[in-house]
Amino acid sequence: HLKGESAETDPKEQIKQVAVYGAGIMGGGIAQVVAQAGYKVTLWDIQQSDIDRGMQTIRNSLERLSKKQEIDPTSVLRRISTTTSQIQAAHAADLVIEAIVEDLKTKQQLLERLDKVAKPSCIFATNTSSLLVRDIAKTVSGARKARTVALHFFNPVAIMQLVEIANADGALLDLLKAFVRDIGKVPVVCRDTPGFIVNRLLVPYNNEARQMVERGDASIEDVDTAMRLGAGYPMGPFELMDMTGIDVGYHIMKGWYEGASGLQGDPRFKPSKEVEQMIKKNHLGHKTGRGYYTYT
Ligand code: CAA
Q1: Where does the 3-hydroxyacyl-CoA dehydrogenase NAD binding domain lie (predicted)?
Q2: Residue nearest to atom 52 of ligand 1 (CA)
């Protein structure tokens, strides 16, 4: 290392066991990339069927990756254990990453419970996409508050290189940056504000695209083609909303509009009747086979 630079912390000295809560698209992806980097992971979800679905997605993803990278899916999978016991997953963890439903109360309740059983040194990280870390941390003890941070990943986790870090400083921030690099990702650091960097910019952008189509200014297909070919984005906004989930985007905006995020009442985030109709019809994007586009 260069003069004046400190040697990078070896994250594996302090983080040996990771517990991931939520075996959905995000939690499963996080468990996968953490295990790929050599950490032992426990993946928790409420029901065995949620875990089974999550593990199948991980197996499929590892299969795709192993065609172009030096990855041995069997040894990665061996490092992931699963449980439906919330407490059991937290006992031995040095780092907890929660990727459960995007609901403040549910996240607070989970962390409150885990706070009582996790080691004092255990770091609590939230993968929230829109809530404030300090709100989620309200139910944990004072000492743990200082160790409750955001580690925010992007979909698809196996491919997207970024992790946003919020609410950490000093040695804890150094450790988290080293951890993020160790799992093959690039960290960025930001303040604890709604949507951090990426979603604070993406959500209004997606919303503008939707309003453009609702006004009849252009078609869904033409807006997507325009942003792919005219702005160089890998996907247009409607393809992206279908991938992340129509319901996910809707709840983020509703939370900002109605909650106490500092963005309440902002007309840009007013819940849309058209989107509510889509949700009622279960047109949630990829995951239900239909959103702005139809998938077979
Ligand atoms: N696991 C393993 N490999 C995967 C994968 C997965 N889950 N998903 C895609 N891949 C691989 C494919 O196999 C493919 O590999 P090859 O190049 O070797 O064939 C490669 O990734 C590219 O995939 P595709 O060819 O299918 O399609 P693409 O070139 O359009 O790439 C994409 C797909 C990476 C998703 C790209 O379109 C993209 O970057 N889109 C934007 C995604 C984005 O903005 N994500 C952020 C959403 S916001 C969010 O996540 C935050 C939140 O809180 C809501």
Answers
A1: 17-193
A2: 129
If you measure from the C-alpha of residue 154 to the centroid of ligand 1, how many angstroms do you get, rounded to a whole number? Answer: 10
Q: Which domain holds residue 45?
A: 11-190
Q: What is the ipTM of this complex?
A: 0.94
Domain boundary among 135, 166, 190: 190
Closest CA to 221 of 242, 245, 247: 242
CATH code assigned at 215: 1.10.1040.10
Number of domains present in the structure of the chain: 2
Here the contacts of 185-188 (C-beta below 8 Å, separation 24 or greater) are 185/33, 185/153, 185/161, 186/161, 186/162, 187/163, 188/162, 188/163, 188/164
Q: How many CB atoms lie within 10 A of CB 163?
A: 25
pLDDT 10s digits, 24-39: 999 999 999 999 999 9
123 lies in the same domain as 79? yes
Instruction: Let me know if residue 112 belongs to a domain.
Output: yes
Tell which atom from ligand 1 comes closest to the C-alpha of 57: 7
Q: Does a structural domain hold residue 6? A: no
Residue 252 CA to ligand 1 center (angstroms) comes to: 22
Residue 113 sits at φ, ψ, to 5 deg, of -65, -45
Q: Is the pTM of this model over 0.90?
A: yes
Work out which ligand 1 atom sits closest to the CA atom of 67. Answer: 18
Q: Is residue 64 part of a domain?
A: yes
Q: Record the tokens describing residue 108, joined without a space.
A: 């607070």
| SS3 of residue 203 by DSSP | helix
Domain end (from 127, 161, 190): 190
What is residue 9's predicted lDDT score, i.e. its pLDDT? 80
